[in-house]
Amino acid sequence: MTTLLQRSQILDAKLKSLTLAKRHADDYNLIQQRTQEWNDRNEKLRVFRSRTACLTLRAEDVTEVTSKRAALLQNASTVLARLNQDDDINQLTRDAAWKRLLKSAEGLTEVLEAAGRKAWSAYLEERGTLEDPVALRLRTPPTPQNDEALRAYQASYAAYQVIARLSLPRTEEDLTLLTTHVAACRQAFLLLTFDLPIEVKRFFEAINAGSATLAQVTPSVLEWIAKNGRLDGFRVRSAGQ
User: Fold this and answer.
1) For residue 241, is it within any domain?
2) Are 174 and 166 in contact (CB under 8 A)?
3) What are the pLDDT digits (tens) for 190-231?
4) In the list 65, 72, 168, 191, which could disulfide-bond 149, CB 3.0-4.6 Å?
């Protein structure tokens, strides 16, 4: 039979085992929390690093980003040294160095995002302004050539807007695509005709209104249509059809 002393020793061993198991469980939970805290901030920082890598930041912004990055590296080194000295996650939780590390990661992310937005805005300005196709339609005569050019312009403009409205480019490919769409819009713009002889303008207005008659096909209108290679672009029908 076990003596009272032996029973006490067994009970004491079990209590110590339970205490150790609880400590391990608490440490595991704290490790998960600290890991999640760092991963959240590090992932956000990684995204902005990736999306600003293709941009040229202003010199003063580069200086600030460099300073924030140095602070982050210093705080990360401090935390790593503390963990190497004392393998106690509870100590790390209480240590102000951990909070400074998280704050420095957030600070670098904020500075990088702001610098990236300014660089992206500058890049868009350098590409020049494109006129809205709706406004362009209002000031161009409704000729078949203009209609075709405007369709091409509108398609490229819509694709341009998708990228230009981003807070930051997603990859370097966005910069290439943006430049391509701007060039396509300008090419289409060059095909537009803004000034037409008054009779030609009235003829096309009547065509769009469905009220054009042969009386409006004057010699000057016919000459303009032939000169622009559009003779085969129209059909004559009687008013009764």
Assistant:
1) no
2) yes
3) 999 888 778 877 777 776 666 778 778 888 878 877 877 666
4) 191
Structural domain contains residue 239: no
Regarding whether 170 and 65 lie in a shared domain, the answer is no
Task: Tell me 140's DSSP state.
Answer: S
Residue pair 71/111 in contact (Cβ under 8 Å)? The answer is no
Give the structural domain span for 204.
133-233
pTM: 0.73
Cβ atoms within 10 Å, residue 182: 20
Tokens at 125, concatenated? 């300005």
Long-range contacts of 170-174 (CB under 8 A, 24+ apart): 170/51, 171/50, 171/51, 171/54, 172/53, 172/54, 174/54
Q: Which of 225, 217, 216 is nearest to 196 (CA)?
A: 225
Whether 49 and 123 share a structural domain: yes
Dump pLDDT digits (tens) for 121-136: 999 999 988 889 988 8
CB hemisphere CA count around 196 (13 angstroms): 26
Apex 55 CA angle, 108 and 186, nearest 5: 145
Our count of domains for the chain comes to: 2
pLDDT given for residue 20 in this prediction? 63
Distance, CA of 59 to CA of 39 (rounded, Å) = 30
Decide: 93 and 142 in contact? Cβ < 8 Å: no
My answer on whether 106 and 138 are in the same domain is: no
Are 115 and 21 in a shared domain? Answer: yes
